[in-house]
Amino acid sequence: MGIKVTITGLGHLGHGLATLDGKTIHIPYTAPGDEADITLKRGKRGTEIKLKQVLIPGPDRQTPPCPYFGTCGGCALQHLTPGAYIAFKKEQLATTLAQRGLHVPVADVVTTQPASRQRVRLALRQTGGALVMGFQAFRSHHIIDIAGCAVAHPDLTALFTPLRKALRPILPHGATVDLQLTLTETGVDALLDGDWQLDLTAREALADIAHGLNLARLVVRNNTFTDPVAVRHAPVVTIGGRPVALPVGAFLQASQPSTHALQALVAAGLSGISGRIADLFSGLGTFSLPLAAEGRVVHAVESIADALDAQKAAAHGLPLSTEERDLFEMPLMPDELSTYGAVVLDPPRAGAQAQVQQLAASTVERIVYVSCNPASFARDGRILVDGGYTLSSVTPVDQFLWSAHTELVAAFTR
Known about the structure:
The protein is α+β, with helices and mostly antiparallel strands. Helices cover 23% and strands 31% of the residues. A hairpin with a 2-residue loop joins strand 7 and strand 8 (130-136).
């Protein structure tokens, strides 16, 4: 028999909150108002709390749209009604900012739709004559075998079953490989990542798979080599109206609609600013290429050489210069930054503390910060505010649908 609790709210990961023996506990897959039956299991890593069943659903609970919800660890919040889900995203961002003393009205969440994600990363494991392919279970390395995904673009999910069937005779027994699928304008780009040594037979079989499934490109990569097994069509994405050749494993935003939303918010954040713009952690040119296409003079800085080369090739004829530089080890200094009217930065999840410390000491008039991690953004935002900047706007973009993660675009003015 389990323990009955009432869910009173949501924690920062979207887990339901309840009180048990005077302590707050976190229960995944529950919603405010739920009457839930839970179990406690004590182990080496502490007490594990599991939802046994929802006895009485609360007003914020809906039927999850995905049949894998609750087993697949990819989407943790499908059980929330749209209103409760969006309110959670906005409130959690405001709370995270307030914890660093950043008090600014958070704009309405820019939403994205299901079946729009343009890249997915699946785990594959060959075991007992069967190939399991899917996402890892919640807090586990166990792979949940899936045939579809509610957030991924249909052109990607259509490949799940045929790829599972085609790769089963090829993948070595016991091997675990990651499969990244990226939707491009010339077809799906497939990257197999793992400790896998290819022989001639395997290469020929993979080339046949690429042809049979009409993949744009199929690449196998491990720690020692990158093998473009089949390149039928060079993968291309359009950024700022320019075709960009996609390097192997290159980073793209989660979906096209969210990318366009971020680009529009960055452009709005730069409104009224003249002079050159520095785009730091520029990647393939998600922001620098559209800005340069509008006639803005942009200097793009990025540490990943192939991404920078792809951006440079796409920018031919535009007022855009590039620089290969590790901004964690060698941030732009205040005297360099003073030559720009504005700075755009879109760092990885860890944020950009070293670069932000230099920005705080600069005279740059406007900073537009794009972040996929509100916690590291709040830390960096605090540094900028302490350095004399005003945080004037924050807009959340829900490109990580049904997860606790939130993208944001913020503007700072000196």
